[in-house]
Amino acid sequence: MASTGFWSREGENAAGDSNQSPSTPRAWCLAAQKFTGDLGSKLYALLNVGEGNKTASSATKKVLAASENCDCNKPCNCSKRNLDLSNLYSTDLLPASDGDLATITFLQEVVDLMLAYIVTSFDRSTKVHIRGRASVRAAGVRHSEEDEEIIGWQDGQGDGIFSPGGAISNMYAMLVARFKMFPEVKEKGMSSVPRLAAFTSEHSHFSIKKGAAALGIGTDSVICIKADESGKMMPLDLERRIVEAKQKGLVPFFVSATAGTTVYGAFDPLHAVADICKKHNIWMHVDGAWGGSLLMSRKHRWKLDGVERANSVTWNPHKMMSVPLQSSALLVREEGLMQNCNQLQACYLFQQDKHYDLSYDTGDKALQCGRHVDIFKLWLMWRAKGTFGFEAQIDKCLELSEYLYNKIKDREGYEMVFDGKPQHTNVCFWYLPPGIRYLEDKEERRRRLHKVAPAIKARMMENGTTMVSYQPQGDKVNFFRMVISNPAATFEDIDFLIEEIDRLGQDL
Amino acid sequence: MASTGFWSREGENAAGDSNQSPSTPRAWCLAAQKFTGDLGSKLYALLNVGEGNKTASSATKKVLAASENCDCNKPCNCSKRNLDLSNLYSTDLLPASDGDLATITFLQEVVDLMLAYIVTSFDRSTKVHIRGRASVRAAGVRHSEEDEEIIGWQDGQGDGIFSPGGAISNMYAMLVARFKMFPEVKEKGMSSVPRLAAFTSEHSHFSIKKGAAALGIGTDSVICIKADESGKMMPLDLERRIVEAKQKGLVPFFVSATAGTTVYGAFDPLHAVADICKKHNIWMHVDGAWGGSLLMSRKHRWKLDGVERANSVTWNPHKMMSVPLQSSALLVREEGLMQNCNQLQACYLFQQDKHYDLSYDTGDKALQCGRHVDIFKLWLMWRAKGTFGFEAQIDKCLELSEYLYNKIKDREGYEMVFDGKPQHTNVCFWYLPPGIRYLEDKEERRRRLHKVAPAIKARMMENGTTMVSYQPQGDKVNFFRMVISNPAATFEDIDFLIEEIDRLGQDL
């Protein structure tokens, strides 16, 4: 690998001699000294060492301030390089502007901790604390008070489980709803049960149908309810179809309302759905895989008003909250139901004569045996960011999408797929190249417009500049669906996106 | 944190001045220089710097040799710290004896790469290559020739999927088997299907019953077949129960043989099971979650003879092969069946006008939507260790368990739960404290013996010295089940375990 002399004594001296930006070289050296390879030169460029007139950011200043605490005057080889990071917050790290140094310093601390763990765990004089599988099995949800508060269930009610994803969480909901109404299904199967009917909007996620197929209910028993122009389930149609199903001898057992549909980002009217479910005694599920995280935002949580009346809620922290895949929870209002539904009490796993509080053995309420500890990443992020940190992150994404919407709604060559401000960060639009923009023949216009988004997307992939999803929906031809879930995006990125679509699509 | 002056110039000079073990200080410095915190002092102690008469291991020598390549005479601040690690093998890393330095050096390289990635990905001039979710969706299994070879399916046949764990893989198998026999179940549900019957041994994993409950088949339809004294399914009983079920009007559709039962580690006789399945036209599944990895061992793969006749196989690389949770595959012999069984062709995900080879879009054969990329860890480990590396690791675990078995089978105070050498690494035994050892009253002996394993386990947890599972099985009271899946364990660890059980259980 090419070296710019970054690691050389000359480089070190150059840094040490630079007094124009007095702290930067030292801090830079603190972090960058730990790198091998030509990463050094990249960091060098990134951190602009030598550009003395660059002003250090707040985060950089904190790292620098920490390094100032050492009592050694040498810039790089000081004896106390243990930075005190207690003054650094997650908001100081990337994507914070100029958060590079803080991030690198922080990550190196993490690495040190992990390596220390490895060293310790290979030391046979240390204690065995937890066996991996035992800890994994105990990784069910034990709700914090905060979780309850967030959904709005009363008196600390509630139960739940982390599952491998939203589709499985929705399937669990359907499974528990069926068990609640017909507990004998567990032993006797569907032959002991009348023909069931489940209801969800035509814009809902396909996992509702997949779940019905898997559970032996059948996709024909999932009745799709009409959505209005903005993608919300229509309560009148829901009630009409429930009555109709009953007349046909089916037993309605499950309504899945969607909080944040996949394509439009629409929120079904939860109070109206809850009223109907209550009237007809049907389990109300809310698929909040995508939109559930808006509960963290005081500004946007009204979009989920009524969620507190649901029997179960799917919520995927791995979407809007940026928890690394996989982190999906199914929350169930009635405690103990999941346990009764799924437990088999295999005696080789769930011994009753264990040495500790058996309420930590939550494994038997899952379909799985050993499980990935998906709650841990969320817990850690929550500790680091706090509820307000998540809120700020979510509000930022919504602000960015509103910015995009406002920029394109009246812009020439752009056409919105549905009227009004999007409720979530999904901004759905067509781009009409000049050659299509003024076509009179509506059918010809549709036909050609359908090919525009795939063609632009292909060019995006070739150019590697940006990536935006597209799809048709119902009778609407292919349109772009820009979804923002990365709070590191900026207004400039949105401006760039609009210009880039113009650039790539001009000649189509 | 306390510092031993490890980072001081004095420390550096001390290392540089030590010529007794000429290379060690330099190499030690290379790796340890990167650490902050008091990890330094631990490493210092661990690596025994200053004990000049210590002989460097082969792995350490390789790291040292790499560092010798620099053209700088200074021990620590050389300009070319880019170690050439191409000569290091995974077997040089921990748990290799004295693999500490190699491991640390290697891990630091990994960290450098990751940090370089972060730096690059925040550089807006770089290309967008893959969107996370797109890559995740494409993470189905596209088998390498090697996979096929391993199961033994002909002509490169086969299909599969990575799922969140063995229980879900087994559920997928049952789902696909049902669809194969009654494809209408997908739309019409179980009401369109006669009453089904599934068969598995009484020693099989509880996930077979959980799957039947979830899929609407019902646990009563899972018929448990007798196992012999060593835990293997009895083919005579299997056939008898299939005939009996048919006489009752049930439709047998699924037999799950177990390759490596959870408690005894027994392997069902696959050829005999396959003969019966063929005769009665029933789907043959092999739950090889635990034992499937023995296919990697030329010495032990005979235990799975007949697996090539199965219609589906569950295999969990996250167990015996030490791939980090989660990594579980369901392999299905008939191609396209999973796709037909599970696909819903949601148009917003599985567009047909995409810019690339659509055969990479394997997501629709899963129940899930977004998924964790579980195959990647396995692929990476396979690349690093090779088939022979995995084989060596597995053979080592079996060797350790055989060592344990040989040590305790005739030892006073120990009693084996079943006769003969265990087929897998499960060694099942009772420990009888002296006070119980000679009891004449059989019932009193049983009663007291039942409490011994939990009591010793509690002491193990308190002492933190070791952890061994225990459970009852059928009419057998609580016994220890020592399962070895960590190739870093040593014969000395086994000796220690036996002595520790003696020590902790003496007075019970």
From TrEMBL, chains A, B:
<dbReference type="InterPro" id="IPR002129">
    <property type="entry name" value="PyrdxlP-dep_de-COase"/>
</dbReference>
<feature type="region of interest" description="Disordered">
    <location>
        <begin position="1"/>
        <end position="24"/>
    </location>
</feature>
<dbReference type="GO" id="GO:0031410">
    <property type="term" value="C:cytoplasmic vesicle"/>
</dbReference>
<keyword id="KW-0966">Cell projection</keyword>
<dbReference type="GO" id="GO:0005829">
    <property type="term" value="C:cytosol"/>
</dbReference>
<keyword id="KW-0333">Golgi apparatus</keyword>
<protein>
    <recommendedName>
        <fullName>Glutamate decarboxylase 2</fullName>
        <ecNumber>4.1.1.15</ecNumber>
    </recommendedName>
</protein>
<dbReference type="GO" id="GO:0042734">
    <property type="term" value="C:presynaptic membrane"/>
</dbReference>
<dbReference type="Pfam" id="PF00282">
    <property type="entry name" value="Pyridoxal_deC"/>
</dbReference>
<comment type="function">
    <text>Catalyzes the production of GABA.</text>
</comment>
<keyword id="KW-0456">Lyase</keyword>
<dbReference type="InterPro" id="IPR015421">
    <property type="entry name" value="PyrdxlP-dep_Trfase_major"/>
</dbReference>
<dbReference type="GO" id="GO:0009449">
    <property type="term" value="P:gamma-aminobutyric acid biosynthetic process"/>
</dbReference>
<keyword id="KW-0968">Cytoplasmic vesicle</keyword>
<keyword id="KW-0449">Lipoprotein</keyword>
<dbReference type="GO" id="GO:0004351">
    <property type="term" value="F:glutamate decarboxylase activity"/>
</dbReference>
<keyword id="KW-0472">Membrane</keyword>
<dbReference type="GO" id="GO:0006540">
    <property type="term" value="P:gamma-aminobutyrate shunt"/>
</dbReference>
<keyword id="KW-0564">Palmitate</keyword>
<dbReference type="InterPro" id="IPR015424">
    <property type="entry name" value="PyrdxlP-dep_Trfase"/>
</dbReference>
<keyword id="KW-0663">Pyridoxal phosphate</keyword>
<dbReference type="GO" id="GO:0000139">
    <property type="term" value="C:Golgi membrane"/>
</dbReference>
<keyword id="KW-0770">Synapse</keyword>
<feature type="modified residue" description="N6-(pyridoxal phosphate)lysine">
    <location>
        <position position="319"/>
    </location>
</feature>
<comment type="subunit">
    <text>Homodimer.</text>
</comment>
<dbReference type="GO" id="GO:0030170">
    <property type="term" value="F:pyridoxal phosphate binding"/>
</dbReference>
<dbReference type="InterPro" id="IPR015422">
    <property type="entry name" value="PyrdxlP-dep_Trfase_small"/>
</dbReference>
<keyword id="KW-1003">Cell membrane</keyword>
<comment type="similarity">
    <text>Belongs to the group II decarboxylase family.</text>
</comment>
<keyword id="KW-0210">Decarboxylase</keyword>
